[in-house]
Amino acid sequence: MAEPLTFQALPSRQYVLSSAENFVLYVLLEALARGGDGAVGGRLPLNLGVVLDRSGSMYDERRLEFVIEAVKFLVDNLGPEDKVAIIAFADRAQVIVASDQIHDKAAVKRAIDDIDLLEIGGGTQMALGMRAAIEEVKKNLGSDRLNRVLVLTDGQTYEETACIDLANQNRGQMSFSAMGVGVEFNEKLLMRIAQDSNGKYHFIGEPAEVPAIFDDELQGLRAVTVRNGRMELTLSQGVQIREAFRASPEIYDLGTPVVGEDRKVIYDIGDLEAQVSGAVLLTLVLPPRRPGTVRIGKATFHYEIPGTGERSIECDVTVEYTLDRTLTSKVNGRVMNLVDQVSVAKLQSKAEEELKAGNLDRATRLLGNAIQGTQRLGNVKATQALSGLMEQVKKTQTLQTRAAKTTLLQAQAVVRKTQMLDPEALKELKTDQD
């Protein structure tokens, strides 16, 4: 049987200066699942809980209409083995379609059309909807299914901590994808729910985009070939880890690295879609050593293939210590490209924090630096999004206006999305390294 994935550890530099006290080295841990080559069987059946906000604000801008259209699309594209429960929430939560009813398409569509008739209030208690969906997903929970909760909302919710707790308490059994419509929702909350559970976060600027987002979720789930990925890095003595970021398919901070007594750090990656890189970028600090080849760490990727159990694949992280400073100037272009993308995301996030604190000058300087970074990378979409945010910041000096919040959410979505280099760019970078 062909290996279902590749796993590699790429250092930003192959040569490390022997005399440096604290040599900074970036290491990219990357897993890439194969697809369509017989390495894995047919697609896994779905086990979904779809949680829909039916608060009063969902009637604005025809949001509820587009949600109904999206759910009908989902129902029409299910396979015979798929299980999907649909839950509506406002002040209360109600299961409007149980998972064992989903294949009566006519009945399901009638229930969706009547969602506005439910007597569940007009507030926003998202945790209640999530809890009901979790209970439905658990009825069909299994390693031979893709277990996920999809949450769609357009507003602020009560009990935000409860939502985060639910995602974390169930992360080993299911992932959570969070979709925010408009500009009134708490994007930090939805990002946290998705990131903590290895799901997806979607910003939906226009209600008409809702059906396309549901299609994206469905296509992504169908493309999953590797389950429950987990990266483990055992650091050699003297090697320290300073930062860790998820680097693909989206960029976000993985928090303060926790190194155990066994010198291991572990990062959950979740499910992998075929041909979509799952990667973590680490910032390491190396001690001085004598010249020669040194293993600075051992990386292991644990994963599951349904029907065959857990597997693992290993690779060493090695560098060459040298006294020749000219050798240490040679870099891996692909890794450094991702380092630059992460740096832009950090600048955008810091600018947002400064603006919220009322530090307009610092915010605009940080945004200016981020724009310069995207220009160097040739990321036109990110440059346009950040430039639009800069204009709004200078114009309104706040994030409170609808236009400013919209441009902020657009910039976040674009900057977080990893832009992989095209083959020609990789050839040029390889030539530069040589």
Q: Which spans have pLDDT < 50 for at least 5 consecutive residues?
A: 422-434
Could you report the average pLDDT, rounded to the nearest whole number? Answer: 91
Assign a percent range to the helix content: 25-40%
Classified in CATH, the superfamily of the largest domain is von Willebrand factor, type A domain
Shape: globular
> Please, how many domains?
3
- Quaternary structure state of the chains depicted: single chain
Walkthrough of the structure:
With 434 residues, the protein is an alpha/beta fold. It has three domains: 5-35 and 225-330, Immunoglobulin-like (Sandwich), CATH 2.60.40; 46-222, Rossmann fold, CATH 3.40.50.410; 334-416. It contains twelve helices and 16 strands. It has helices at 63-76, 105-113, 126-138, 160-169, 187-197, 210-222, 325-328, 333-356, 360-377, 380-396, 402-416, 423-433; strands at residues 5-11, 15-17, 23-33, 46-53, 83-89, 93-97, 146-153, 175-181, 201-204, 224-235, 240-248, 252-253, 264-273, 278-286, 292-305, 309-322. The chain has a six-stranded mixed beta sheet, with helices on both faces. A five-stranded antiparallel beta sheet has the order 1-3-14-11-12, covered by helices on one side. Strands 2-16-15-10-13 form a five-stranded mixed beta sheet. β7 (146-153), α4 and β8 (175-181) form a beta-alpha-beta unit. α1 (63-76) runs antiparallel to α2 (105-113) and α8 (333-356) runs antiparallel to α9. The longest helix is centred in the last third of the chain and has 24 residues, at 333-356. The radius of gyration is 23 Å and the shape is globular. The model is unreliable at 422-434 (pLDDT under 50).
